[in-house]
């Protein structure tokens, strides 16, 4: 599989098969991803992979606290404006339409939201952290590391869903991981094999055309 094919195949998967990938494969992906670029070669990422009993314990703790904790950061700016507001709204509508949940069925929508805390049934949970004293450029570096993880997983026939949702559980996750106090939880990621039969996995989020966000200047 080439990079173009991996980019095209990668989508956010929200229903997984229960089988756990081998630990050696997970380690290989995480190690290879460390070739991702980082400014000044700071390599700011700190990564934890959970499976089995450790992951079951985490899911149980989250289920016991459905309202979460004080978030590490705001995933979206307050009072989101267009075109970002419309893109986010449409993506949500498309997701719930894929699984037949109407707008007025708020309990069903909340149940689907809570599936985040179960990593959508994925057998592996990845958690990405970094030193609190680092700044936005290093957050960007960590994002590039995560994207590299996702593409390497795709190359190996695996699937992922990046989840900033986990910023709502910094203490729960931090305590279970033994995360140093000077580090923060940035994001989680569900990893495993997609359930091909799950309707929610048919969703491919829309992308605006190049003309909306890009320009070419100075070319012949």
Automatic annotation (TrEMBL):
Residues 8-193 form the Nitroreductase domain. The keyword Flavoprotein applies. Keywords: Flavoprotein, FMN, Oxidoreductase. Its cofactor is FMN. It holds the Pfam family Nitroreductase. Belongs to the nitroreductase family. This is Nitroreductase. It comes from Phenylobacterium ferrooxidans.
